[in-house]
Design goal:
The complex is a heterodimer. The radius of gyration of chain A is 13 Å and the shape is globular. By secondary structure, chain A is mostly beta strands. Chain A has strands spanning 9-12, 18-23, 35-40, 47-50, 64-69, 72-77, 86-93, 99-101, 105-109. By secondary structure, chain B is mainly beta. The relative contact order of chain B is 0.33. Classes of the chains: A mainly beta, B mainly beta. At the A-B interface, strand 7 and strand 8 of A face strand 5 and strand 10 of B.
């Protein structure tokens, strides 16, 4: 299975909003509303930020939001803060009963 | 509070078998899929596979021929075996809990670095 496609890097200034895209296929993102997003700081365990396309687990800031259109999902971070600087990965359930991750995006706060 | 604690050998030689175990404390052991994910140094996440309390497994097609995931419901533990390892299998290996079908991973183990080197 091929990894979902994400931009290698996205940057923004504090307070700005940024959006990370996650492109899949009819075998995954386009078919299911089961896209999740994870934040990973260096040498740390990934943290679930969004599940089922646009739902936030308790404890996750409402500055994080998710959406989907066709075969592309997106994660938006509003009011960018220094602590948001991290790697972000999307994932999706697939028609083969498997999970596929995105290629990962490094977010830099300028 | 759900906690996952994992352990296993950290240094292997090529052709050996990587074996890791993950113990689950708190929450229900049934009703979820128990997953393994890995991350090579400096690279992205790769899903390895999963198992539920009934022993039903799903594997990444690219690893399926070398991977076995098993479960011990009496101990609330599950394990990963990866045979015939090479340097390309060097990675941090994570265990995690997945919600069936929706497949989001809310709880993760602490990660174990497995290094394959002659």
């Amino acid at each position: 299975q091929s990894a979902l496609t994400q931009p290698a890097s996205v940057s923004g200034s504090p307070g700005q909003s940024i959006t990370i895209s996650c492109s899949g296929t009819s075998s995954d993102v386009a078919t299911y509303n089961y896209v999740s997003w994870y934040q990973q700081h260096p040498d740390k365990v990934p943290k679930l930020m969004i599940f089922d396309v646009g739902n936030r687990p308790s404890g996750v800031s409402d500055r994080f939001s998710g959406s989907k259109s066709g075969n592309t999902a997106s994660l938006t971070i509003s009011g960018l803060q220094a602590e948001d600087e991290a790697d972000y990965y999307c994932s999706s359930y697939t028609i083969h009963n498997t999970l596929v991750f995105g290629t990962g995006t490094k977010v830099t706060v300028l | 509070q759900v906690q996952l604690q994992q352990w296993g050998a950290g240094l292997l030689k090529p052709s050996e078998t990587l074996s890791l175990t993950c113990a689950v404390n708190g929450g229900s052991f049934s009703g979820y899929y128990w997953s393994w994910i890995r991350q090579p140094p400096g690279k992205g996440l790769e899903w390895i596979g999963e198992i539920n309390h009934s022993g039903t497994t799903n594997y990444n097609p690219s690893l399926k021929s070398r991977v076995t995931i098993s479960i011990d419901t009496s101990k609330n533990q599950f394990s990963l075996n990866l045979i015939s390892v090479t340097a390309a299998d060097t990675a941090v290996y994570y265990c995690a809990r997945a919600v069936p079908t929706r497949q989001y991973l809310r709880y993760w183990g602490q990660g174990t670095l497995a290094t394959v080197s002659s």
